[in-house]
């Protein structure tokens, strides 16, 4: 599977699950060459998601929402993910 396809699948899952107003996604797999997660074909990603779905939720609950939106890809495509999860109000004041 090409990385562009993987990135697009991640983007589609997050769009469908969280309806973000901002979604920034970066593949950082190249920085982890030789790491166990890289050897088994899963990638390392960095994501910034701005969504109303995070309103009133603590950071751990926000991360769980991201993981839930990604579903099985967390087991098959993603080894690690750095997450910034904000509400639109938080993003505007940052």
UniProtKB/TrEMBL annotation:
<dbReference type="GO" id="GO:0016226">
    <property type="term" value="P:iron-sulfur cluster assembly"/>
</dbReference>
<dbReference type="InterPro" id="IPR036065">
    <property type="entry name" value="BolA-like_sf"/>
</dbReference>
<protein>
    <submittedName>
        <fullName>BolA family transcriptional regulator</fullName>
    </submittedName>
</protein>
<comment type="similarity">
    <text>Belongs to the BolA/IbaG family.</text>
</comment>
<dbReference type="Pfam" id="PF01722">
    <property type="entry name" value="BolA"/>
</dbReference>
<dbReference type="InterPro" id="IPR002634">
    <property type="entry name" value="BolA"/>
</dbReference>
């Amino acid at each position: 599977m090409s990385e562009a396809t993987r990135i697009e699948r991640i983007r589609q899952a997050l769009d469908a699950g969280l309806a973000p107003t901002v979604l920034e996604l970066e593949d950082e797999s190249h920085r982890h060459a030789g790491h166990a997660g890289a050897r088994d074909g899963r990638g390392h990603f960095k994501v910034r998601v701005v969504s109303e779905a995070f309103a009133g939720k603590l950071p751990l609950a926000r991360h769980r929402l991201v993981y839930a939106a990604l579903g099985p890809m967390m087991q098959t495509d993603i080894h690690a993910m750095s997450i910034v999860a904000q509400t639109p109000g938080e993003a505007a004041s940052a």
